[in-house]
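User: Hi! Is it possible to get a structure for several chains at once, not just one? Here's what I have:
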Amino acid sequence: MCFARYAASLVLLAFLGGCGDNLIPSGEDQRPAVQVGTTGAGVGQHAPDFTVLDTEGRAVTLDSALAAKQAVVLYFTMWCPSCDVQMSQLQGVIPTFPGVGFYLVDYVSGTVADAGASALADGYTGVGFTTLADTRHALLDGFQGTMGTTVVIDATGVIRLNEDYRDGARLKAVLAALP
Amino acid sequence: MIFHNYLRYLAPFFLAGAGILMPASAWAGSCCGGGSSAALMVPKYAYAVADLSFDAELYDGFWNQKGSYTADPPGSDLKQYRLNLGLGYRFATDWQASLTLPYLWNDNTYSGLSTQTSGLGDLTASLWYDLLDDHSPWRVRSLQDLTPSVQLGLSLMLPTGYSPYDKVESSFDVTGRGFYRLDGNLMIEKTLHPWDLLLAASYGSYFERSVNREYGKYVEPYRKQLGDRISASASLSYSLVLDAGGDTLTPSASYAYLREDDDSFGGVSNPGSGFQKQSLGGCLTFSGTDRDWSVRASWNHAIRESGWGKNFPTTDIFTAGVRYVFR
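Assistant: Yes, the chains can be modeled jointly so their relative placement is included. Here is the combined structure:
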């Protein structure tokens, strides 16, 4: 019995040792150096170009989104509960930054019609957002997005933010610091 | 839902985490051995118990932040499967310890995306103390016969699953919450054969942690804490003796409530991020005469109506399980 207990303890320790770094969370800043002048998804890089249809069927490109805008915000949604909370919070940010274009990126719908239906069902049509149907995952892959990813691209096409929305505080700070 | 703030607090988190998050329906002790998912109770007459169960959790919409039921995107089919291993050991007359560990499969299909991922979930270690014993009489002859069993417990959830702060590529890979959580548990059970009533409640608090990575991308480090969690459940069961040999079939019905407060970043609360869920459940358990082996099937149902939850997915959880008690 004693042997069994020790063996079980060893197995447990070995298991816990192989569980990744969540068991001992790190607060160390390990962000890679900013690669200025290159194109990619990282902060400081030029945003990759894209062409995506919105839910009205109109083509939206990086250039057209940035035209006459101070910046563009992309929010990646899968129409989930936390997405709903964050989109609602984001909606409250829109009036403060009238010079910024706000886009919801639907990367789970396979058609423009499905993306439009989700935006309508969740109450995000006509409330300051344009919903993009990222059916070919150009934005998802180009910006390494996932649920809640929030991207800010300034007027020169440089990425100023690319991270989880969290509580929106970082987004507001980045938008407020735009030239 | 396991776990999923999970699941789909982070869709797959819910897809992944929901099982972990959600208290399984409370099962009456005479039905399924007692307790919520964090509880694996060893009967007084035994020294250990082993439990293996399989959950299939089917997602069908969610309650939004206002509590209104909202459908999932068109063409979506979201599922999570969990294999749960539980071991309990009574190391003293009134003390027992247990471990539960899930393995999860996330199977998500949308009209424009399909993913299948899997991984370990979050491990829960529990310690229980028997404060009062129930002698389960067939007939009440004195006040003492009305004494319920009362058990106090502590549970520690360890972030052994893949969380958004691990080296994962997307939210679909998530199988755990990424936080330690300490729960205080209370379980009160009274059996008056053939009836059994179980009340369970727990209060949990997550430990604040540092985050320097989100879905594989390193970010400026910050501190995050999930909100405190309250869960409560009630379950009523009735044991049917099937034949002269003493095999029993025990149907039970249950109600469960779960609430988690808003999370916070750097000590600043994030309003609207908490969630709430109410669900109903049913369980059918067969156990042999000697009660060593039991098998069960259960169903937990989230009511797809506005007002029964907030900021949480509505799911059906189907469970099949087998348990063995070591004397």
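Residues 1-38 of chain B have pLDDT under 50 and may be disordered. The first strand of chain B starts at residue 48 and ends at 63.

User: Great, thank you!
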